[in-house]
Amino acid sequence: MTEPLKLYNTLTRSLEIFKPIKKGHAGLYTCGPTVYHYAHIGNLRAYVFEDILKRALKMNDYKIKHVMNITDVGHMTSDADTGEDKIIKGAKREGKTAWEVAVFYTVQFKKDIKALNIIEPDVWCRATDHIKEQVALIQKLENKGYTYIIPEDGVYYNTKKFENYEELGRLNIEGQKEGARVEFIEGKKNKADFALWKFSPKEEKRDMEWESPWSKGFPGWHIECSAMAMKYLGEQFDIHCGGVDHIQVHHTNEIAQAEGATGKKFVNYWIHNEFLIVENSEKMAKSGDNFITLATIREKGYDPIDYRYLLLTAHYRSKLTFSWEALTGARTALTKLKNYVVDFKTGSNNGDWKKYKEEFENSINDDLDTPKALSIMWMLIKDENIGAGKKREAILHFDKILGLKLEEAKEEDIPQEVKELIRKREIARTEKKWKESDETRAKLRALGYEVSDTQEGQTVRRIV
Ligand code: AMP
Ligand code: ZN
User: Fold this and answer.
1) Which among 390, 408, 426 is the end of a domain?
2) Would the CB of 42 count as within 6 Å of ligand 1?
3) Which residue has the least CA distance to atom 14 on ligand 1?
4) Total domain count for the chain?
5) Nearest bound ligand to the CA of residue 34
6) Is 5 helix (H, G, I), strand (E, B) or coil?
7) Per the confidence metrics, is the pTM higher than 0.90?
8) Of 118, 151, 164, 462, which residue is the least packed, with the fewest Cβ within 10 Å?
9) What are the Cα distances from residue 5, in Å, to 47, 52, 61, 359?
10) pLDDT, tens digit, 9 for 90 and up, residues 384-423
11) Which of 30, 34, 36, 43 to mutate to test the pocket of ligand 1 (most atoms within 8 A of CB)?
12) Are residues 182 and 321 both part of a single domain?
């Protein structure tokens, strides 16, 4: 029998059986991109993890409502609500308006997630389309005494007024060193207080600003997620996701806003993915050498789905170190897998894969253990008691969760990398560079292709 779906809840720091608010339904909110630049592959790890979660919920017969925001205003370069609005910064960099930058990178983001075979959310919502809802939520908080104004700066949330403020992040604000979490700015009553509404600077006209009951300005980053999540999923819903960097500030603040306003528990399960890190560097940022995008991956001859495979080889709660060698390994494995899917088109339907189905689904239900799920799929491939036809059926079933587009694998699918190596070997042979020719043959073998030299030239055959 398949085990029930268990997920690691950051709120309780434990593995819990998923119990929805409404039987058979799951409400899911995932923090979306800040559209001032391309998403880097670290950001994309978050969206692939959320996609696996969605597919797992679907596997367990839940009807899902998935909401994702587009942050197109208010996300400041510093967590202390100082610095610059990231969208404005992007606009200056590119000599465009903030609106143009936001639209451009939203389109790019949607292309990226499509390339990664991520199922689109049911609701996309832009912060700038929901100013009314955000202002209403701030007013609610104001009426309940949670806010105060810092003149010429903005409306702030008084975190001392919210009793459970430290719960999600297991924070100890008092005991924390100054600046450990967010820096202290003049006028704040407490270190952790944050902006709900920022006033437009007097000296400059912003591209994005709105009238409000306080002063012309723009919303803080955190309020958009509370306001839009509640608008589309209700005051209480099931699951909220994001990267681990959001635990201490963004999600903590979302809870303070929502629960401060409604007096009800906002979200039952908070689920966070660990970071993707790049070899020999601290943090992937949208500037600097380690800013790798899907475009970079394509330029180097890889397919975005190779990257998806790589992500699935690590558990979402473990750090994953990205390297080009690791991506090559993922591509090799995926190429082999696709070849099997094609070869298994013809073959017997002997045996049954019930045992593998159960083990595969149990691994997914065990807090989305994709590395284990992959290993079960590989074990099935090697099982000599199961016929090719059945294996293909099983793999395609597993791929509903893995999302590796295996159904599209075709006979003529000689990967670009293989074609290039064949060409390279051809040149090496005409130049009588035998060592290089042999090395290239070994590389082809590692990718699952055997070349033979005939009078007509090289012939290529896949190794099964
Ligand atoms: P942002 O566009 O910066 O708001 O981030 C989008 C999502 O990516 C958020 O859920 C972040 O927590 C997540 N994230 C940012 N950097 C990384 C990283 N290096 N690895 C994994 N997730 C990340
Ligand atoms: Zn958010």
Assistant:
1) 408
2) yes
3) 43
4) 3
5) 1
6) coil
7) no
8) 151
9) 20, 13, 11, 13
10) 999 999 999 999 999 999 999 999 988 666 777 888 888 8
11) 43
12) no
